[in-house]
Amino acid sequence: MSQLVDRRLSGKNRSAVNRQRFLRRFKTQIRKAAAEAVSGRKVADLERGEKISIPSKDLSEPIFHHGPGGRRNIVLPGNREFVTGDRVDRPEGGAGGGGSGGSPDGEGMDDFVFELSREEFMEYFFQDLALPDLVKKQLAAVPEVKKARAGFVSQGNPSNLHVVRSMKQAIGRRLAMAAGPRDALREAEEALAELEAQGLGASAEADALREDIVALKARIAAVPFLDTWDLRYANRVDQPTPSSQAVMFCLLDVSGSMDENRKNIAKRFFMLLYLFLTKNYERIDVVFIRHHTVAKEVEEEEFFSSRESGGTVVSSALDLMHEIILARYPSASWNIYAAQASDGDNWEDDSPRCRELLTQKILPLVQYFAYVEIEAEEPQSLWHEYAQVKAMSPRFAMQRILTLEDIYPVFRELFQKKAA
Q1: Which site among 32, 150, 184, 288 is 20 to 30 Å from 106 CA-CA?
Q2: pLDDT, tens digit (0-9, with 9 covering 90-100), for 228-259
Q3: Buried b / exposed e along 396-415 (16+ C-beta atoms within 10 A)
Q4: Distance from the Cα of residue 76 to its chain's centroid
Q5: 167: left (phi over 0), alpha (psi -120 to 50) or beta
Q6: Model's pTM, two decimal places?
Q7: For 154, phi and psi rounded to 5 degrees?
């Protein structure tokens, strides 16, 4: 019978294989628990893992066991208190337990609690999400490289020795070096055979031919079977790894109408978006634009922490985004995406201008534009104008966020995978 031994390393955690088997088997329950954990934690805490619990009843599996009834003899090794024939008293407390643990509802089912690492948690959290309609317009060289085959060389590491190629080289060398002596040997043997046929086998000429034959055979035998010059090594060179270039614009309203609760929801939405992008794309630029009456490009820290007062002019952010695209991110070379968060409050005469900027200047350049309106009791003027944009362009999407719990469902709705 054949025996297979798996000698693959499993890292410091010896139960890594069993852990992966467990994650695959209870994938549905873990995904549900991970989704429920989102509402009870801060988005900034996505940098760490998560402790989740699964009801024990969801982990039950069919098992083989002895049926009840019948007469059985049971041997309990190490028993020093009882002998055959002793009667064991019923445990106090009535109907026994079974050790499954008590609970207020009487079900007696304990939850199975375990830790998910950050990578595992993020994998379940983002499993169904993807930026829509990603088109690789240009494959650009990036610092990351991979090893690629580049023929064979005569010098190299012994571990890269290519046996088949080396033997082919040796065969060709032996044929080339022995070709002349073999032809001369064949001619000498034919001449000797002709002399012997004429009865001149004992002549001086025949003896000279025999000496030549011996010398030629020795010369052919002296050709080495394998020479150092025959060795060939597999050659591998560093080849740049191609990847698509993408940029994501994050637009945030920080005006006076955006209170702390709205700003908190918006910040969590952008943090979630940022983590999503960094997980899926190794090479991506993220541009943060905050605005009230004036728009400004800022760093990530200022984007999440700045506080302003005054009115709102949303078109200022769209104008700045358009300028940045033309200056730094030509649409012929970059996949451009944008997400905007606001409470919908805007000057009445500015909302139509926002619609014109989107339809005429921005949407023709971007792959996707997502707008979220936060805690707006009634749709504002900006929402009505953007609704017209959504009706005209499949590249535009919009959703409303009312509470913290709505962030995750709205995010999934905006960036869900589309059926092929």
Answers
A1: 32
A2: 888 989 888 877 655 567 888 989 888 777 77
A3: bbbeebeebebbbebbeebb
A4: 52
A5: alpha
A6: 0.51
A7: -85, -10
Is the predicted pLDDT of residue 319 greater than 70, yes or no? yes
Distance, C-alpha 304 to centroid of its chain = 28
Bridge-partner residues for 246, per DSSP?
A: 284, 335
Measured CA to CA, the distance from residue 341 to residue 358 in angstroms comes to 15
- H/E stretch holding 150 reads strand 145-153
- The one-letter amino acid at 342: S
Q: What is the C-alpha separation between 269 and 299, in angstroms, rounded?
A: 17
Please state, in angstroms and rounded to a whole number, the distance separating the CA atoms of residues 289 and 280: 22
Of how many residues is the chain composed? 420
What's the confidence (pLDDT) of residue 145?
A: 63
Count how many Cα atoms sit within 13 Å of the Cα of residue 326 in the half-sphere of its side chain.
9
Q: What is the DSSP string of 210-234?
A: HHHHHHHHHHHHTS-SS-GGG--EE
Q: Which amino acid is at 94?
A: G
CA distance 89 to 81: 13
Alpha-carbon distance 376 to 402, whole Å? 7
DSSP bridge pairs for 140 = 243
Q: Identify residue 45 by its one-letter amino acid code.
A: D
Sheet strands (E) in 241-334 = 243-244, 246-253, 284-291, 295-298
What sections of 114-162 are H helices per DSSP?
A: 118-125
- Which are the contacts of 267, defined by CB distance < 8 A and separation ≥ 6? 43, 252, 304
Q: Tell me the mean pLDDT in the region 173-195.
A: 86
Residues 6+ apart with CB under 8 A from 216: 181, 184, 185, 188
Say if residues 389 and 358 touch (Cβ distance below 8 Å). Answer: yes
C-alpha dist (Å) from residue 293 to 17, 29, 311, 314, 342 = 56, 47, 6, 7, 13
Angle between helices 27-38 and 16-25 (to 10 degrees): 80
pLDDT at 323: 94
Instruction: Give helix then strand counts, H and E, for the chain.
Output: 11, 12
**What is d(CA 317, CA 145) in angstroms, rounded to the nearest whole number?**
38
Instruction: Record the tokens describing residue 247, joined without a space.
Output: 């940029």
